[in-house]
Amino acid sequence: NFVRKATKLESLMNFCMEMEDLPKAFLLAALCMEAVSSASLQLEQKTYGKITQNDSIQPWEDLLRKLRVCLIVSLRLAGDVNPTGGIEKMTVRSVSRPGIFSV
């Protein structure tokens, strides 16, 4: 179980979800996904398929999709994601809250 968590780099994923600089968050997430992909491929071979590459990179693919949506929305809304009129920083975590919109 520890190997699975370490392979997925969960702390870096949380960091990317909180980053306000979306282009840098996207770049970091893409690099992390490549690292996880490489490491999990080796683990998949060593564990005879108990830890699969696809399962390991799926959370990163989801995060990259969310970041792409956030990048597009931030360009269209200029960062204003609060429907009550307040200005909030655009992060994956801030726009994933109920009542804002979901990605």
Along the chain, the helix and strand elements come as HHHHH
- β-strand amount: under 5%
Q: Which spans have pLDDT < 50 for at least 5 consecutive residues?
A: none
> What is the percent of helical residues?
55-70%
Count the helices. How many? 5
Helix and strand content put the structural class at mainly alpha
Q: Sheet bearing the most strands, described?
A: none
End-to-end separation:
28 Å
- Cα shape: elongated
Total beta strands: 0
**Rg, alpha carbons:** 16 Å
| Mean pLDDT, all residues | 80
Question: Could you walk me through the main structural features you see in this protein, from its secondary elements to its overall organization?
Answer:
- The chain has helices at residues 2-8, 10-18, 22-46, 53-77, 92-95.
- With 103 residues, the chain is mostly helical.
- Helix 2 runs antiparallel to helix 3 and helix 3 (22-46) packs antiparallel against helix 4 (53-77).
- It is elongated, with a radius of gyration of 16 Å.
What structural keywords apply?
103 residues; mainly alpha; 5 helices; elongated
Question: Quick gist of this model?
Answer:
The chain has 103 residues and is mostly helical.
